[in-house]
Fold:
Amino acid sequence: MHQAASPKREHSYLQQAAINVLQNNDMGTFIRPGTYQYPHQWNWDSALIALGLVHVDITRAQHEVRQLLAGQWRDGMLPHVIYHPTEGTSDYFPSADFWQTPKDITPEVPTSGITQPPILATCLRRMHKHHPKAMLPFLREVYPHVLNWHRWLHRARDPEQQGLVAIIHPWESGTDNAARWVHPLARITPRNVPAYQRRDAQHVDASERPFTAEYERFIYLIDQFRRVHYEPAKLYATSPFLVADSFFNAITYRAEKDLREIAMLLGEPTKELDNWLARTQQAFQERLWLEQGYFASFDVRYNVTMYEHDIATFAPLFAGLTSQAQAETLIDNYLLQADFYAPDEHSRYLLPSLAKTSLFYEPRRYWRGPVWIVTNWLVMEGLLDYGYGELANTIKEHSLALLEQGFYEYYDPRDGTPAGASGFSWSAALALELLHE
Ligand code: DGY
Structure:
C-alpha cells in the first residue's frame, strides 16, 4: 500500500516529475500511455498528451498529433490504437494482426478497427490558446483531417442524422468497463469467440481490471466486426452493441464547438458544424434528459434508456449541453450528494467514476469507482463554465493531491491509493495543464 504523500510538496517538483514520466514514455515516434500496460499510441490519450506537452515542447506536441493522424483511415475514421513500429516486441493484446483490418482503406501503419472519444479538436484549440503563434499554422495543417474524422462520425455512426453518434464497442467510449455497459453487454451472448489470451492483468492486478465475462464480449465484438470487414453500414446494422453514449456524444459536441472556433480562426466555413451542433443539442434535450435530473445514454440496438448514474452523466457540463437549471440539478442532486459522489467519512476524493450507491461500485476496479484525472479535468472545466468556480477548485485540489502520490491511471476515492497502470502519461500531461491554469 502506498503512503499518502504530503500535499504540501512543491508544484515545481510535481511539474518536473510529470515531465519525467512523459520523457520516460517517449518512444520517439509517439508517447505511450503507460510504461508497461499500454505500449502503443492510443487516440484520446495522445490528444491529451499533446495538450500537456505543449507546455514543455511545442514541436514534440505537434509531432504527437501528426503521428496520431498518420493512423487515419481513408474514409476519415481515426482508430483507437495506432501500432507504430517499436524496438523490441510488445506483449499487448489485441495485437495489430488480431484486428484483421481491410487493406484498401487503412493507412500504412497498422491500427485497430474502432475509434475513441474525439477529444482532439478540444485539445488543439487549447494548445492554440496557450501558444497562438506557433499553433496557428499547425491548425491549418491538421484541420481538414480532424474535420474528416467528425464527418465520418456523423456519416458512419448517425446514418439517419438523428443527432447522436453511436458507438459499437465499450472501448470506443474510453470507459471500457463502465457500469452503464452492464446491461448492453448482458444482452450479448458470445458464440465461437476466437482463441485469445488476455494480457491486461499481467502488469495490473486483475481486481483492478474488467471481468472475464466483459473481456470475452470485447473480443467477441471485434470478431463480429472482422466478419463484416469493418464496412460502416454493416457495422451499424449488425453490431450487437450499438449505443448513443452521453459521454462520447458530449465530447463530440464539445469538440465540434472547438472545431468551429478553429474554423473561424482559419476563415473556413462553419455551416456544416453549425448543423451538427444544432442537431446534437436538440437530441440531448429530447432523447437523453431524464426527469430524474440527468442525461442518460441510450441503447440504440435494443431501444432502451440506460439509467446507470456514472461519471458520463457529468460530461454534458463539459460540453455546455446543459441549461443552467439542468446544471444546478445535476450538481445539487448528484455531485454534491455524499451517497452519490461527494466525500463522506468513507470516501475522501472527488470524483468517483461511478455513483457510490451503485450495485456495481468497486472503488479500485477501473471505471467502476476509481477517480480518474481526465474525468476530474472534464468536470472541472464544465463547472467553471457554469459558474461553480469554488467546486471546480476543490476538484483541482483533490486531483493535485492524488497526483502527488505518483502519476497513476486511477485512484481509490476512499483514501487515494493509486491503482491501475503506473507512469501514466495523461495523468502527467494533465498535471502540466492543471499547474499551468
Ligand atoms: C485496453 O487494452 O484495456 C484498452 O482500454 C483497450 O483500448
